[in-house]
Design a protein that fits this description.
With 167 residues, the protein is mainly beta. The chain has one domain: Immunoglobulins (Immunoglobulin-like). 4% of the residues lie in helices and 49% in strands. The protein has one helix and nine strands, in the order E-E-E-E-E-E-H-E-E-E. The strands form two sheets. It has a five-stranded mixed sheet with strand order 3-9-8-5-6, with no helix packed on it. The chain is elongated and about 60 Å long.
Length: 167
């Protein structure tokens, strides 16, 4: 039913016309400067599309940061609150067709285009993640997640030794 894509980048934003602007997109390694408590900055983008007939339905989108075992990553310290574990109700709107685009049958166009949602979340000061470990962004739609809706990444110490390769 739904299609979900997850992407990380050095920087991302959505402009007023709904276009995604990305710099350094497609990363799966985030740097952690030597001795620093935080990673370098990065941005997370989530794209979700649903069939045209599902656009009027309400969905709950969840974004979670998990470790390699699937456990929610918590902030350092005694509080142990999740770093990123949010759920938000959303509704997929009909596509907006700019007035300067000519399309003879707008009703047909709305049938052809899927409902789309783009989320961009920035971590401009980084996150307190340990270097040398793997992490996962898990996306859920109405509480359901799938393996293909997971983006795996690693944190590597900047200026440190190379990560061992797996043969």
């Amino acid at each position: 039913m739904a299609t979900v894509h997850v992407l990380m980048a050095d920087y991302a934003s959505i402009d007023q016309s709904g276009k995604l602007n990305v710099i350094g997109g497609g990363i799966s390694i985030v740097a952690a400067p030597t001795g620093a408590a935080l990673t370098s900055s990065f941005y997370l983008m989530v794209f979700i599309s649903v069939p045209a007939d599902a656009r009027s339905q309400k969905f709950v989108v969840g974004v979670s940061l998990t470790d390699g075992s699937g456990a929610i990553v918590t902030a350092p310290g005694e509080a142990k609150h999740p770093l990123v574990d949010v759920s938000q109700p959303v509704e997929f709107a009909r596509p907006e067709i700019p007035a300067h685009y000519l399309f003879p049958d707008v009703g047909r166009l709305n049938e052809l285009l899927k409902g789309r949602l783009q989320l961009v979340t920035g971590f401009p000061v980084g996150l307190p993640l340990a270097s040398g470990r793997g992490y996962e962004w898990r996306i859920a739609l109405d509480g359901v997640t799938r393996d293909e809706w997971v983006h795996r990444f690693v944190v590597a110490e900047q200026g440190g030794s190379r990560l061992p390769s797996s043969a």
